[in-house]
Amino acid sequence: MIVPLPTPGTEKLSRPDAAEVMAMARGFATVAAPEAGLTGLQRVLLEAILPAMTDHAVSVEGLEPLSPEGFAEALAPRNLAFRTRGVQVALLLALVLRPLPVEVVERIERLSAALSVEEGMVTVARRFATGSLGLAAVDFERNGYTADWRASDRHELHTSVELATAWDLAVRDDALAERWESLEDLPDGTLGKMVWQLYRARGFVVPGRPGSAPPLLAQHDWVHVLADFGTTVEAEMEVFAFISRANDDMRAFSLLAMVVSLFETGYLRTGAGLFQADVGHMSHGEATAVRVADAMARGAWCHDDVTGDDSIDFLRLDWFELAPLAVEDVRARFGVRPKSAAALGAGSVGPWERGGISPFQVASGKAMAERLGRPYDSFGAAVA
Fold this sequence. Notes:
The protein has two domains: about 20-145, no CATH class; about 150-370, no CATH class. Helices cover about 50% and strands about 0% of the residues. It has 17 helices and two strands. Strands 1-2 form a two-stranded antiparallel ribbon. Helix 1 crosses helix 4 and helix 3 (about 70-75) runs parallel beside helix 5 (about 100-115).
């Protein structure tokens, strides 16, 4: 059964009311639950996402089931974008499961079909469920954020060398490296200077030098400062939740799916040209789920006051144009909201707070300072 899309001009565009959120909660809980019912992590994640995105809190314990087709009927007045976001939330709830039961993926496939949604990460979830992890990694590139990457897309990255793929390294690019290193000369409190401090405190190598991250991946480091996220693994998940939800290109969801598959389940061994799998960072204590939900909501509220655009691709911005601006001014331009009390209570911290840096990063920062003959400065960051 396919629930037809509403005709143009008749879509329901208002925020969900309590009744619609209750139907969504029932649908998500039914679609994503393994045979024994929702896991503890799934419950925490769903109960965090619903109020963060809709302002309506729901306890999912003991909810009456709602089939994928019934769920689709509940979303009948909604447009394709809203429906796709619904499928993505169902996928997110599924992707924290290991093992991922085939029947969960089948229910998400039924929901997608009923909603007329084509979401490439459903194919990836099917690969995970059937143990085809190598093919899943291929499908991430084929169906995800970088699917239409072209060499010309490197313009905002300021590389002077061609990048054959999105996550290519640029390890011998002096002009690029010098541009990043010049951030040190900006005034204190500017976005660029704080990004330089982020790198120096953690011993990060700037793009264009051997040992650096891919230039496209380095774009996300500006978001650590912009949205006030530390640089631990849990904070990386917050950053990519924020980035993926700020972008109205639905393929950006693959960025969040990627970090969940790296840092919770380990379905992916590597990602983004640099990241390595390190599992259990959402299920350990489950507080990260609350932080991820808040990051998603903060990303969704972003708006570019200069262009008037509600969709912002933070990985494709020319950050060097913004580097000389005070970080508060850049936050104001993009409508970056403060973190919620729930996220703060769950341990979300910024780059310069205790818990905002890892022991490995402190050691790397000290080693870099020694090589450069400078005293080490964490700029306030400390390990938890």
